[in-house]
Amino acid sequence: QVQLQESGPGLVKPSQTLSLTCTVSGGSISSGGYYWSWIRQHPGKGLEWIGYIYYSGSTYYNPSLKSRVTISVDTSKNQFSLKLSSVTAADTAVYYCARESFLVYSSGWTAYGMDVWGQGTTVTVSS
Amino acid sequence: DIQLTQSPSFLSASVGDRVTITCRASQGISSYLAWYQQKPGKAPKLLIYAASTLQSGVPSRFSGSGSGTEFTLTISSLQPEDFATYYCQQLNSYRAFGPGTKVDIK
């Protein structure tokens, strides 16, 4: 049973860089067929996808956050990480990591959705 | 970028009611759509992927349909544990989420 766990500072100062790590247990991050995503949820609001990484290092970011986001993977530690630079109060949110499953076959591919989620971690941006 | 809208944004219903939520995409996304349920203070839970395939362990009262630009999530007989917020998400390119539909007790 794959489990995800977010970790990182709960308080970040404005203009600094938010850094979070997601640790994968019960499975290998290097297994093909998975994108490893970050999603956030502002207080009382909906879900916002931040971006994902494949174990090879390929990434895809939300265009609205792309200039400030870096997602990286450390296969030796079975972890992937999020860095969000130049944060403001608008970046205060619950941050989730999640696994998205997919399968590529000869005539196309199937997306299986985000089937495993971390519990979420609250990050507050404040001086 | 593909945008998703959901209707209604809020729904008040009773136990046993049939509930339908609609998700519309600004461009065709074939069947690359998932539905999630989220309860307060909890991470979202995957209900349906590929527009109509029920995730393992999800009760059969949940069903999804649609392709292209219009999709629906139906709960055939609302149960007390189904009062939650529901989100659609497109999986074709940028993983946009819909704004959510809150299902509340009438």
Q: How is this structure best described in words?
A:
- The complex is a heterodimer of chains A (127) and B (106).
- Chain A has 127 residues and is an all-beta fold.
- Helix content of chain A is 0%, strand content 57%.
- Chain A is built from no helices and eleven strands.
- Chain A has strands at 3-7, 11-12, 18-25, 34-41, 47-53, 59-61, 69-74, 79-84, 93-105, 108-117, 121-125.
- In chain A, 34% of the residues are buried.
- Chain B is mainly β and 106 residues long.
- Chain B has no helices and ten strands.
- Chain B has strands at 4-7, 10-13, 19-25, 33-38, 45-49, 53-54, 62-67, 70-75, 85-90, 101-105.
- In chain B, the strands form two sheets. In chain B, strands 2-10-9-4-5-6 form a six-stranded mixed β-sheet, with no helix packed on it. In chain B, strands 1-3-8-7 form a four-stranded antiparallel β-sheet, with no helix packed on it.
- At the A-B interface, strand 5, strand 9 and strand 10 of A face strand 4 and strand 5 of B.
Short description:
Chain A has 127 residues and is mostly beta strands.
Q: What is the makeup of the main sheet of chain A? A: 7 strands, mixed
Query: What best-fitting shape of chain A do the alpha-carbon axes yield?
Result: globular
Q: Helical amount among residues of chain A, as a percent range?
A: under 10%
Taken in chain order, the helices and strands of chain B follow as EEEEEEEEEE
Indicate the mean pLDDT of chain A: 96
- The SSE string of chain A, one letter per element, is EEEEEEEEEEE
Low-confidence stretches of chain A: none
